[in-house]
Amino acid sequence: MIAEMAPTKEVEEARPQIQELTNFLSEYTAKMLSIGTYTARIERCVRRIADAYDYEASLMIFVRHFIISVMDPADNSIRRTYVKTGAAAQISFDLISELSALSWEIYDEKIPLARARASFAEILASQKKSFAKTLILLSVANAAFCELFGGDGGAMALVFAATAFGICARYLLSKLKINLKIQYIAVSFAVSFIVSLGARYGLSATPDVAVGSSILFLIPGVWLINSVFDILNENMLVGISRGLNTGLLIICIAIGLFLTLSISNLGLVNV
């Protein structure tokens, strides 16, 4: 009889209080939402973790906010429901993969919540990247796109410099809490104008490729793909909202680029 009761005691010890679990799931959901995870994947991971501790969880996700509800299936009066905000962060596919794997580890091994929290914190700490490294890699990638589309060496150098400036400008504007759409217009104009100015002084023989490539790092491709995934997974509200928001950002990029082409003498547009 003692042998039969031991596993039950172990399960009870591993089962956290509903408030502790809700707090953890709120933090987990906010992080997954902020780094570019599509809705259906977040829902599966959160429900998987809740199931591991014998709770039920449900989510309603919007573009920036989400509603999370956790309930004890044995007693419906024991529940927690919160409205939370997911702050925007840098998109990281590695982090998405690691956090998804964490949900499976919790589900398969039934690890205690304290250990799950420690693993969560360890994953977040290990994924922190230096701003300088991100700056260099994104600038090199954008310059590589310029070369791929037929840009010459001068165009690549201009795109590299403009991209580095644009990333720094976005970082500064974000710290100042400037509206995201204003950020996109300002940065799009700034980077394309830097490139057009360099091309005007003869630094590149392919100004059209240089100007067109300079704003590619701003394109919100992940959010556009996520909106399609959400719609295909019948999360219509958040999918349409993400699609409209992404469309507005693309329009803002186009406005900034049009301002540059309107005041430059490159002959790329007629106004």
Automatic annotation (TrEMBL):
Membrane spanning stretches: 156-173, 185-203, 209-232, 244-268
Domain Threonine/serine exporter-like N-terminal: 26-263
Name of the protein in its database record: Threonine/serine exporter-like N-terminal domain-containing protein
Chief location of this protein within or outside the cell: membrane
Stated family: Belongs to the ThrE exporter (TC 2.A.79) family.
One GO term describing the cellular component: plasma membrane
Recorded GO MF terms: transmembrane transporter activity
Keywords (A to Z) from UniProt: Cell membrane, Membrane, Transmembrane, Transmembrane helix
